[in-house]
Amino acid sequence: MSAPSTGTPQAAEGGRDERLVHRSLVRRLMGRPELGSVVGAIAVFVFFAFVADTFLRASSLSTVLYASSTIGIMAVPVALLMIGGEFDLSTGVMVTSSALVSSMFSYQMTANVWVGVGVSLLVTLAIGFFNGFMLTRTKLPSFIITLGTFLMLTGLNLGFTKLISGTVSTKTIGDMEGFSSARALFASHLSLGDVDLQVTIVWWLALVALATWVLLRTRVGNWIFAVGGGADAARAVGVPVNRTKIGLYMAVAFAAWISGQHLLFSYDVVQSGEGVGNEFLYIIAAVIGGCLMTGGYGSAIGSAVGAFIFGMTSKGIVYAQWNPDWFKFFLGGMLLLATLLNAWVRKRAEASK
Amino acid sequence: MTALVELTDVSKFYGNIRALEGVSLEVHAGEITCVLGDNGAGKSTLIKIIAGLHRHDAGTFEIEGEPAALGSPREALDRGIATVYQDLAVVPLMPVWRNFFLGSEPTKGAGPFKRLDVRRMRETTRAELLRMGIDLRDVDQPIGTLSGGERQCVAIARAVYFGAKVLVLDEPTAALGVKQSGVVLKYVAAARDAGLGVVLITHNPHHAYLVGDRFVLLKRGAMAGSHAKSEIALDELTRQMAGGSELEQLSHELARAPGPDVIGGRAVEEPDEGLADEVTEGTGAAGKPSGEAADKGGEGPSGAPAADRPRD
Questions:
Q1: Most buried of A121, A229, B103, B133, CB within 10 angstroms?
Q2: What is the ipTM, given to two decimal places?
Q3: Beta carbons of A308 and A45 less than 8 angstroms apart
Q4: pLDDT of res. B170
């Protein structure tokens, strides 16, 4: 940064040095979207470390990480979608749909669960494509489009499950071929010393790493920021805006498929009414992690920190032996605080420029 | 010598609205063609046709002598036409270097490891801007934090860097102060000297006259005049642009605070002297009912007397 500045003998030489001094490392860190959430995460961690004696045990932390990962897996693509300027309200039930399709297709049509898993992937991606296609074709707000998908999926989940299996949950597929290998991939435990870690944590961290790479180091990442920050400008310089948005919805669907398979293979049966309301948890994680509601700004790592705050709060309340009925209240308060903190941090960071 | 871009009698309708009719324009390499017009004159529509956002409905649009109908901005870019819009087509929250390469990002590596060549993007951005005299302290700063003139120059530098043959600039000096306008005009001239054909859209005749080689005047969607620089003086251009006889009329009205009969009398009288020449088709095409002409008539033909003058 300093090399070219010395190469131009300008009148404002002194002023330039001064300007460079202003952007210290601290200021640069403050410019990162996830900073507010990291501060918040540390605060929550310290808080529960004090009020709950068992919180710092390795087994507790692995439980916290598991809770974080189940939200975090979905929060990653939801964050990308929000950076791309759109919403998805159908994510919660889409996870359930994905699990139901996988379970019922395997049970009804074949003897091997992997066939169901594959069909489920195609169906879920098709739902994501539908969301994106409808959005780009109709130009309606994504809020409306995905609210429609949300309601339709909720109905389909219940309707099809009752039609096919007669009850509101699916039949058990635990004795079918391929179940154990599928369970190993989607719902196994890894032992690290005496700590038991769920495989979803690996999925989660892998998705965060992949999303961060895509976002910061690929052309597609540049396009995601651009379609969220200024779709018209992006279109004018040749960015395929519609394809980018459809791709983002399909990425959400892909993560919903992973979550859905985890749901299926860890519990063996799927309740058709599950998942309603989870879409807001994913959005909360992304927003706490520094994503702007209006698009164009945010990070995948931030969504992971947001999910971690969620995990710590939901389990910390249990370890502190409080009444978990209050959990949602804390979550709501945290969302407000985190968003305020984010706004404040960003203002400070921008003022420094 | 074939023109880089040539429009002949181009028209565009939005439903029953005539946005543009019978407009002709030529852009040659190393020349600046200025398009002048008031608000609603059809300047934006004209740009959108050249930039590939809209297709024209009638007339011919030729790029280097070949008929063209551009389907998308990407297609226009591929044929060497770069457009810098009033909003500059930059994403305010994104860093300068990401904006500079947006839509045409260089990559390195292959397959799953194909990634942005971040170092090259940063260095090129810095070097290209430095060449235009913009010395950024940090190419990582969001482009929204730059001044209007700087942003304009980034957008122009970007178009030049990506090998544009034709540069279309939409009101580049509209929101700028005197000094910043001067800086931007300097880069417009620099782009011209680099051999680009430039279409400069503006409603400021002073800026246009400083750099322009040809001037096309638009009025209510029709062409109200087309002049080479040698054919027209700044005063005349300014007079036509500023509304010409309209302005004179306005000054009369303002001075006397006239009664309704005076306004009516003047407006009826004017079209007669105005219906001289090619502007007739402009007024006629507007399809105004004759009754309406009493209040609006002044606007259509006002450019007419002036438009003839250089030819006499």
A1: A229
A2: 0.79
A3: no
A4: 87
**Among A204, A316, A249, CA closest to A80:** A249
From CA B15, how far away is CA B13, in angstroms rounded? Answer: 6
- Using an 8 Å CB-CB cutoff, list chain B residues near A350: 145
Q: What is the pLDDT of residues B136-188, one digit of tens each?
A: 778 888 888 887 778 888 888 888 888 788 888 888 887 777 877 888 888 88
Across the A/B interface, how many CB contacts are shorter than 8 Å? 92
Sequence letter at residue B167: L
Q: What is the DSSP string of A6-39?
A: HHS--TTHHHHHHHHHHS-HHHHHHTSTTHHHHH
Mean pLDDT across the stretch B18-25? Answer: 85
pLDDT tens digits along A228-286: 988 888 887 888 999 999 999 999 999 999 999 999 999 888 999 888 989 999 998 99
Residues of chain A with C-beta less than 8 angstroms from the C-beta of B87: 230, 232-233
Predicted confidence at residue A351, as pLDDT, reads 56
Query: Residue B6's pLDDT band (boundaries 50, 70, 90)?
Result: confident
| A219 interaction partners in chain B (CB closer than 8 Å) | 105, 107, 116
Please list every residue in chain B whose beta carbon sits closer than 8 Å to the beta carbon of residue A218.
107, 114-116
Q: Is any Cβ of chain A less than 8 angstroms from the Cβ of B143?
A: no
- Please say whether the beta carbons of A145 and A139 come within 8 A: no
Q: Which two tokens stand for residue A278?
A: 């989870």
Superfamily of domain B5-241: P-loop containing nucleotide triphosphate hydrolases (3.40.50.300)
Chain A residues whose C-beta is within 8 A of a chain B C-beta are: 1, 4-5, 8, 10, 16, 19-20, 23, 213, 217-219, 221-223, 225-226, 229-230, 232-239, 292, 296-297, 350, 353
Please state, in angstroms and rounded to a whole number, the distance separating the CA atoms of residues A274 and A256.
Answer: 13
Is the Cβ–Cβ distance between B147 and B61 less than 8 Å? no
Q: Where are the domains of chain B?
A: 5-241, 245-311
Q: What is the 3-state secondary structure (H, E, C) of chain B?
A: CCCCEEEEEEEEEECCEEEEEEEEEEECCCCEEEEEECCCCCHHHHHHHHHCCCCCCEEEEEECCEECCCCCHHHHHHCCEEEECCCCCCCCCCEHHHHHHCCCCCEECCHHHCEECHHHHHHHHHHHHHHCCCCCCCCCCEHHHCCHHHHHHHHHHHHHHCCCCEEEEECCCCCCCHHHHHHHHHHHHHHHHCCCEEEEEECCHHHHHHHCCEEEEEECCEEEEEEEHHHCCHHHHHHHHCCCHHHHHHHHHHHHCCCHHHHHHHHHHHHHHHCCCCHHHHHHHCCCCHHHHHHHCCCCHHHHHHHHHHHC
Residue B303 in tokens: 């450019």
| N residues, chain A | 353
Maximal CA-CA distance, chain B: 77
Are B103 and A234 in contact (CB < 8 Å)?
A: yes
pLDDT of residue A31: 67
Positions of chain A with pLDDT under 50:
1-22, 352-353
Identify the pLDDT of residue B106: 86
More confident: B16 or A26: B16
Distance CA(A128)–CA(A247), nearest Å, equals 8
